[in-house]
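User: Let's play a game. I give you a shape written as C-alpha cells, and you guess the letters that built it. Ready? Here's round one.
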C-alpha cells in the first residue's frame, strides 16, 4: 500500500461555520481596504493585516476541509497569531478601561465575536485533525 498526502477526507461543517467564514471574510476585506486607503498607515496596522490574511485562509481551510500548505505552518502560525492577538486585546482592554464603559463593551464584544476563529485555527492545526492524516492506498 502506498501512502498519499492527497486529501480525500471530507469533514462536514455546520452551516454556522460557513456563515461565520463569510462574515470574517467581509471584515477582513474591510480591514485590508481601510489599510490601503489610509494615508497615515502605522506599523501595527500593517502587522495586523499581515496576521489577519493567513488567519482567514486558515479559517477557510478549516471550514471547507481543505489542506492548505503544511500542518506545522498552521501550528506555528496559531502560536504566533494567538500570542499577538492576546497582547493586542489586553492593550485594547487596558485602554478601554481608561476611556469609557462603552469602549470596554466594544472590546469585549469584538473578542467574543472572534473567539470562534481562534478555536477553528486551533482545531485546524491540531495533529488530531483527520484532514492531516496520510491516506493509505
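Assistant: Ready! My guess for every position:
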Amino acid at each position: 500500500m502506498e501512502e498519499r498526502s492527497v486529501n480525500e477526507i471530507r469533514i462536514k461543517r455546520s452551516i454556522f461555520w460557513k456563515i461565520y467564514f463569510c462574515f470574517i471574510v467581509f471584515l477582513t476585506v474591510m480591514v485590508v481596504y481601510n489599510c490601503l486607503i489610509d494615508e497615515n498607515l502605522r506599523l501595527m496596522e500593517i502587522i495586523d493585516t499581515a496576521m489577519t490574511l493567513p488567519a482567514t485562509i486558515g479559517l477557510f481551510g478549516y471550514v471547507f476541509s481543505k489542506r492548505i500548505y503544511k500542518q506545522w505552518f498552521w501550528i506555528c502560525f496559531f502560536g504566533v497569531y494567538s500570542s499577538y492577538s492576546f497582547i493586542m486585546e489586553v492593550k485594547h482592554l487596558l485602554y478601554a478601561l481608561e476611556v469609557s464603559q462603552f469602549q470596554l463593551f466594544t472590546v469585549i464584544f469584538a473578542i467574543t465575536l472572534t473567539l470562534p476563529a481562534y478555536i477553528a485555527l486551533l482545531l485546524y492545526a491540531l495533529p488530531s485533525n483527520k484532514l492531516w492524516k496520510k491516506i493509505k492506498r
